[in-house]
Amino acid sequence: MKSTRRGTVSFATASAVALATASAVALATAASSGCARTPVDSSWLFVVASDTVTVEEAAAHWDSFSPGELRVFEDSQDLKRDFVDAYSGMFLVRYELARRGFLDTPEFAMQREGTARIRMMNALQDSVLSSRTRSVSDEEIASFLADSGDFFGLTDSSTAHASARTRIGQSHAFAELDSLLTTIRESSPAEFRPPAIARFSAHFRGEAELEPGDTLITGPAGTWTAGRMLGELEFEASMHEVLPADSNWMADYSRLIVNRSILAAEFVRRYPSEADDLMGLATERAVETAAESLYRECVLDRVVVTDAMIDSVYQASPPPVEEKRSMVALMVPYDRIEEFEAARAAGTIESVVPAFENCYPEEIGVSPPMRRDQVPCGLGDSLFALSDTVSWIGPVPAGMDGDSVLIAARLAEVFPARIASREEVAPVITAEIRGRLAEARIEEWLAEIADSAGFAVNEPLLSSLPDDPGAWSDLCP
Length: 477
Fold this sequence. Notes:
Blueprint: H1 11-20, E1 44-48, E2 51-54, H2 55-63, H3 67-70, H4 79-99, H5 106-134, H6 138-148, H7 157-187, E3 191-192, H8 194-203, E4 215-218, E5 224-225, H9 226-237, H10 247-270, H11 272-298, H12 307-316, E6 320-321, E7 324-333, H13 337-346, H14 349-352, E8 357-358, H15 380-385, E9 392-397, E10 405-415, E11 418-419, H16 422-453, E12 456-457, H17 459-464
Antiparallel strand pairs: 1-2, 1-12, 3-4, 4-5, 6-11, 7-8, 7-10, 9-10
Helix pairs in contact: 1-4, 1-16, 4-16, 5-7, 5-9, 5-10, 5-11, 6-7, 8-10, 10-11, 12-16
């Protein structure tokens, strides 16, 4: 018996788990589409196209969740169903990514290549630094401290030795990496084509047409055409600002790309197994990015909130705004309490107010409007009981500086309870409507993919499993 039912899974579960954990499974090869099929083995839990997932695999996936990922399921009323919906949703998204060719695009390849290159370069730098730091001798440390210890402020004997080792190791590592780059560049030089790089930069200033096939760089590390460099810039822009219109910046960036490629290639040469692992992680990250793009295109971009929707929600239940009050508050040191109390008793307290420090910025002098529960130092009930702006409440401990300071306050202004205007609550209403529409759309979208992928759940098996997926691993041999 099979079923294609997708339970009523929350927006958070379907999107946050299905998409954010899309990289949890290696997706180096695309899932192929096919007809719905029911495996003979009764241990199968669900099927998506050519993928068959067993209870054992589902249990391992649940056990791999971090505490933060598990929190997504805290409010679940049907935990095992919601988990299966979320986990199968991941496979459905994978299937759709492959079916629509997202994993074959130049953008996907650039994301994977760029991420892997940076991670491999960083790993090589870390390896060299670790090796060079370990090899620093006691004689080098003693010489460094004698020559430069005072300059670097290394006078504490308990930390000077370790700090000196770190600085010397960094210096040696930098020298080794610089020598490595120089040697490789000299033995296998890259050819930079300044006119082509200048034309590429001019394109971003509106001074030239872009020629995608124009070659900017060639060498052992690869060939960069204008088209490929556009992809590099797009990837770089996802991390920090890029300035391709600046010809000097563009020339420096071209050299940076080559240096990154050289160091990444050296890491692959030295540590091929670790390089494979990093490439796998880079692939997962690229898949995750592609899934986010697919989600935006198929879900978020199709959600439209109209003014009529906002009006309807607002008119059905205009939200109330609670009464708020602002206050003037002073810091009263313990040694000046008598001075404050004497002025209050004499009715001259306003004359001494300037002698005490105001708790709020001088140019304002009063607090922002606050609800009763927002008033600090437990003064909420007292402030909301005041009917004038001349009576002072407190002083009470401020809860800072060892309780050496107290707070006294008076009412500044009352902001009566009222009905919120449409304009001020429109952003909140919009977000609520967008969330509901997105939840409905993601259910519809996943159902569409499920129909296309031949999705099936082994309902008898799911019904027989413990309600907590955390207990499923105990059932596996």
